[in-house]
Amino acid sequence: MTTPSNAAAPTVLRAAESAPRLTFDAYYELVSFYARYAAVLDQGDWDAWPEFFLDECVYKVVPRENHERGLPLAVMDFESKGMLKDRVYGIKETLFFDPYYQRHIVGMPLVHAIRGNLIEAEANYVVVRTKTEEIGDVYNVGRYLDRIRQTSRGLRLESRLCVYDSEMIANSLIYPI
């Protein structure tokens, strides 16, 4: 049995060194943006959720298999802030479901590209769902694939794809991921 060579380590370091970089303040703003997004959903502040997005935006929740194969079918597929607000209205006023709490655990964002005021990034997420009088369970696991614009009002999502790892989701998906 041979021991693994450390020859690959410099390649990994070079790849990391060539990754797009944000200033510390800009990266802190990005991390805070992800944290605020999760907090709004965890608190059930549905009216605040659409405000993370531009007026013309995309929000999709799609299984990993469909995403990797380029198949368009998504569990949620919204194409504007107006559609996000319609979903909020549905959650608050028209949908009938057994209420539950969500808790988002979001990993550190990995920046893939920076082009002017556009940041392309991804972050892993886990959503734990807890129904009253039940033990919490892992509800959804995946990654956010984001296009985020710096605007005069701060960072806003141009596009968020929530690519979840399983082909199945427990029950129905009511709240945003």
UniProtKB/TrEMBL annotation:
Keywords, ordered alphabetically: Oxidoreductase
Instruction: Provide the coiled-coil residue spans.
Output: none
Q: What InterPro entries would the database entry show?
A: NTF2-like_dom_sf, Rng_hydr_dOase-bsu
Q: Would the keyword Mitochondrion be found if you checked this record's keyword annotation?
A: no
Alphabetized Gene3D superfamilies for the sequence:
3.10.450.50
User: From the Swiss-Prot or TrEMBL record, what is one GO molecular function term?
Assistant: oxidoreductase activity
Q: Which domain of life is it from?
A: Bacteria
Bilayer-crossing residues are none
Matching entries from Pfam families are given as: Ring_hydroxyl_B
Answer yes or no on keyword Secreted: no
The text of the family note is: Belongs to the bacterial ring-hydroxylating dioxygenase beta subunit family.
Official protein name in the record: Salicylate hydroxylase
Can you name the source organism?
A: Trinickia soli
